[in-house]
Amino acid sequence: MIYKSISILLAITAPVMVAACGEEPKPTPVPPAPVVVEAPTAAATPTPTREAPTPTPALAAATATPAPDIEAQVDAYMSSSYSEFSGCALIARGDKVLLSKCYGMADYEEAIPNTPQTVFPIGSITNQFTAAAIMQLQEEGLLDVREPIADHLPDYPNGENITVHHLLNHTSGIPDYYRFLDTETLSSQLSSDEVMDLFRDEPLDFIPGERFSYSNSGYVLLGYLIEKLSGRPYQQFLKENIFQPLGMPNTAYDRPGDSSAGRAQGYNSDLTKAQRIDITTAHGSGALASTTGDLYLWSRALSSGGLLAQDSIDMMFTPYVETVPYDIFDYGYGWYINTSSDPPHVLHGGGFPGYQAIIRIYGDNDVVVIMLGNTWVSKPRRVPKMWTASGVLATIASINQLTRCATFDMYKKKLKVEDTRHLIPYSSDGRWA
């Protein structure tokens, strides 16, 4: 269970909790030997296409009337401090949804409101699904995260020095391919091979394993590995091995412009339509779209087990590397880990022009907060407001008693003065890059 994983994290990090406030660096944990389990073979299906969203049966069973105090406090916060929010929010504790509510419009031109079935691109939250798929392949004995990627990609430059582990926790040194995108490329649909061509021959930024540097390129490579080892397209593997088993009918490879599928239109802060891009170019680093309800089911799978072996979940939530200079966060496999908050929690955000997303899971309390939005309100080198808002919603749920070391003031101060491209990619003029 995820709360077991977080307890393990505390046992690992307890002697160095003070270091999270900037005292001494933490040692980098080494991934343990994988446990191989027998996995069923899924029948091949055609490459999935998105269908019109439908209510999620498993979610409907868990959803109760919103707790009046929580709903009133969330509404008060939204109206006073985040009135520009357009999207959906969900707060749950265990199997009970405390709040599932939407604000604003999915399409302002057509006056179509956001609903719990509205589909939003989730950007880099895709990472955790890619990481889970890698864990499944490891359980099947098809790879070991400690082995070099040259074992599977013999022609990849420096592949003998870069491990799967390095890709998973952003310590590979491979430069982020967003550096090499231009406006024309953003509007084009690129295969994973074509995206890899953008960074394959670029020099490494540092020696693999030396430090953390968020790189979407690493997760594109992981998506490519999933395809190579499974013999199936990335999106098909996730559908058959994660989305269908968990009953997540509204989560799939994104289809930009497919309004018939209930996908929200993305907007700038002035409600003009956001820059149109082809999100599928992000592949394993950010090509998925989902709903708050589906992501809640995903969080329950991580908490209650069943999809992954517990050893795999523990590996995903191990704090392998400090996200210097943002020392209130560590990084596992597809998740930021905050062990300096009380209770500790894991989280990840994502975004594209017109969209923002975040998920927070508080393991000790079995609480999840999810926010998906279709307005682009962040600015360069500034913490996305949704990150702060999701923390406020957690506080309203009375489960986020922050320590002195990790107050929101410190959180905002640390991140505001530094480049936050690892949260949502920006160019110097504020456009997505």
Any descriptors?
433 residues; alpha+beta; eight-stranded antiparallel beta sheet; three-stranded antiparallel beta sheet; 13 helices; 15 strands; globular; disordered C terminus
Quaternary assembly:
single chain
Shape: globular
What is the gyration radius calculated from CA atoms? 20 Å
Record the strand order, biggest sheet. 2-1-14-13-12-11-10-9
Q: In percent, how helical is the residue content? A: 25-40%
Structural class per helix/strand content?
A: alpha+beta
What composes the largest sheet?
Answer: 8 strands, antiparallel
Order of helices and strands: HHHEEEEEHHHHHHEEEHHEEEEEEEHH
Number of helical elements: 13
| Beta-strand proportion | 5-15%
Q: Total number of β-strand segments?
A: 15
Termini, distance in Å?
Answer: 37 Å
Mean pLDDT: 78
Low-confidence stretches: 3-28, 34-52, 399-433
